[in-house]
Amino acid sequence: MTAAQAMLDTSARASDVRRTNLASVDLNLLVALEALLEQRNVTHAGRRVGLSQPAMSRALARLRGMFGDDLLVRTSAGPTLTARGEQLRAKLPSALEPIREILVSRSFRPEEAKSKIIVAMPEHQALVLLPRLLPRLRSRAPNLDVVVCSLLAGSLKRLESGEVDLAVGQVDDTPPGFFRRTLYTDRFVCLVRQDHPSLQHEWTADRFSALRHAVISPGAEDGFGQIYDALAQLNLPDRDPLIVPNVMAAPMMVAETDLVLTVPLRVATRAAAMLPLRVMELPIELPPYEVSLIWHERRHRDGEHGWMRSELAAATMDVVHSLPHAAIAS
Fold this sequence. Notes:
Number of helices: 11
Strand order of the largest sheet: 9-8-10-7-11-13
Distance between the termini: 94 Å
Radius of gyration: 33 Å
Helix content: 40-55%
Number of domains: 3
Mean pLDDT: 81
Strand content: 15-25%
CATH class of the largest domain: Alpha Beta
Order of helices and strands: HHHHEEHEHEHEEEHEEHEHEEHE
CATH architecture of the largest domain: 3-Layer(aba) Sandwich
Shape: rod-shaped
């Protein structure tokens, strides 16, 4: 056979495969065929797959029609396979194994995981959560990569499309198709520089209101990452707060100016441990700051995803029970 003829023959076989209509094939017959080819006995093969001898005989008749071959024949030495039967016996197990793999629901083994999970998380939450989460993951799933994305715009759509696996943030509600789990609740305090002029006087609501305020921009219209959005509701004289793009730039500016910054307590204590800042109790009342974990239903039952959600929740238990290291003034 020339090379050209071989190519034509291969092309013809490929065309035959493409024309095969799997919808017309009872795939259960392949399970019966596997047993028949191994047992070479109708009765024994029937027992293996839970069919009676008559039912297995009917299955063999259908298989013979499907393949256009007797597959199993009688000889003086007993039942034996035809040449086509021998070919199928060699190929069938490797063909059925991937199907069995698809149908078997495997439990997630974190120590064997070699994949990547993308978490949309604002910088201030990364500052609080990652020091507690990453050591847990390093010991339990050393080959699992966690990518933290601080780009929060369109987080719900990105969760829905699968571009992002999980999101951490403050959201009041989630639309249908999404799940939300509260990780922890914090309270608001404020930061001023250690030698701020206001500290020489009584720390009152009027004095707090009269200061120039800094506000950290959430960077997302759907609420993820927002730290403090109630400034406009407090009727403060400062109607034009300084918008700061990220959580680390804001405390650095406060440490060098007379600005005041309102943030959750755990963020404030982390910043005060690194910069010359004073953590002050708020002289006004604000609702609690609730941090949630959000995900889409497309991954709700995924074993790896569920394990990661549990690890995040476990890491936040350390956050809940941790005590601030910096003194809080009132």
